[in-house]
From TrEMBL:
Gene3D superfamilies (alphabetical): GntR ligand-binding domain-like, Winged helix-like DNA-binding domain superfamily/Winged helix DNA-binding domain
Signal sequence, renumbered to the chain: none
PROSITE patterns given in the database record: HTH_GNTR (PS50949)
Organism: Conexibacter woesei (strain DSM 14684 / CCUG 47730 / CIP 108061 / JCM 11494 / NBRC 100937 / ID131577)
The protein's name in its UniProt record: Transcriptional regulator, GntR family
Amino acid sequence: MPRVQDDEVYEVLKEEITHFRVSPGARLTETELSARFNTSRTPIRSALQRLVQEGLVVAMNGARVARPFDLREFEDMYRVRISIERLSVEQACERGWEGALAKLRETWDEPLRTENPGAEEALAAELRVHMGIARLSQNELLITTLERINDRISVLRKLDFLDADRVERTRHDHQQILELIAAREPTRAADLMQKHIEGAQANISRLVSGALSQASLERDGAA
């Protein structure tokens, strides 16, 4: 079996962790991975470090493990996110400068203006519009808090864009939210933002539950 390169190890592990083929919380040891990929520990260490930087692998009790999934924590973060983003939209309606809003409306979907936009591009556009609205609020504490929440859930948010229909639905929601902000309608804009986030949360929960169930069946079948 030929030796694999750093990027190959990284891509395989990223795919497996993202789609829960590696169980959340499973230990990832350099020794076992070196044997599996028929390579030295150096490329394994490099791949794991990249995954740590992306939040897919975390240090826990002196070991590196696939990022655990805590349903209660996920739900709590989305409750906080909804509250923060409702306020973000309301204050953007009150404080947002016309020029900055016009620029955001023109440029937020630039990552999607490619021939075949995927989950990476959709997430980039998603973050651009949500953080753009937050900056329109001119509320520094709100901006900082939302950035921290985004860092915690960005890996899971990408799952929401595996389906082209969800990408298009999200794009439509964003356009409507920005139109309502431009019209200075804070209540309608905030209500739509909440509905938009709740839809994403429900879709991610469904996908995660399905992936975990499938992974469990595969492990049972291999036992």
